Structure formats: structure tokens, C-alpha cells
Amino acid sequence: KGESHVEGEKVENPDTGLYYDEYLRQVIDVLETDKHFREKLQTADIEEIKSGKLSRELDLVSHHVRTRLDELKRQEVARLRMLIKAKMDSVQDTGIDHQALLKQFEHLNHQNPDTFEPKDLDMLIKAVSARYK
């Protein structure tokens, strides 16, 4: 039987191979729920996105979207902390520099673990762009 596609149905994208792929997808999904941001995203060229110009539009999204992005960031920070703890437990070395480990994660601002800011979106875009150069 042939399946008909419903308008607005999401198409599954292939895995990017990034260790933060799920976080990236969730951020994009939440941002696309904001009509203004979705329109800006659709009309922006790749240079506007890479330069961080699009990140400044984050200040104009709805409160609900910002709240959801904050929640996603806190979940991602918790996931990364769990990974760091697992790595530390496997090494059993008490001399590990936590800040140095956190700096490995360039897709978010680890110095502000509670709120998703334009800098976070900019860092996420730059991390993805660097991966595909």
C-alpha cells in the first residue's frame, strides 16, 4: 500500500554523526515552532547563519520557545556532566581539570549552564559548520 504524506509532516533527517546530534535536532525543532524565527531561517543565506546574524534573532522569539530552549540546554549540560563523570570513573584519576573537559564541548556555552542565549545558538552553528568544512 502506498503511504500518503500529510502536509507539515516531518521528514527524518539522517544522523549527522555529531555527538550532540539529538540536542541539535531538538534546538532546531523548537526554533522552528516560532513563526518569526522560522521565516528568518528560511530566508537567511548560509553566510548570515555562519556569521551569527541569525543568532541575534533569538532575542525576538516567544517566551515559551526560550523557556523550552533553556530546558533543552540544562538537559544537554546534565548529559555532558554525566559523560564527564563516566570518563572520570573509568580513569580513576582525581587530577582531572573539569573546566578543561568542559571546553571540549564547543557546541554550547558551559559557563552559563541554565539559559539558552544567542551565544549558545552561535556556538552550536559554528560547531556544526566546523565539522563540515
TrEMBL record:
Q: Which Pfam families match?
A: NUCB1_N
GO MF, one term, reads: calcium ion binding
Instruction: Specify the protein name.
Output: NUCB2 protein
Q: In what residue span(s) does the NUCB1-like N-terminal domain sit?
A: 5-128
The record's principal subcellular location, in a coarse class, is cytoplasm
The UniProt entry, under InterPro entries, shows: NUCB1_N, Nucleobindin
Q: Which residues form the signal peptide?
A: none
Where in the cell does this protein reside? Cytoplasm; Golgi apparatus; Membrane; Secreted
The record's keywords, sorted A to Z, are: Cytoplasm, Golgi apparatus, Membrane, Phosphoprotein, Repeat, Secreted, Signal
Quote the cellular component terms of the Gene Ontology held in the record: endoplasmic reticulum-Golgi intermediate compartment; extracellular exosome; Golgi apparatus; membrane
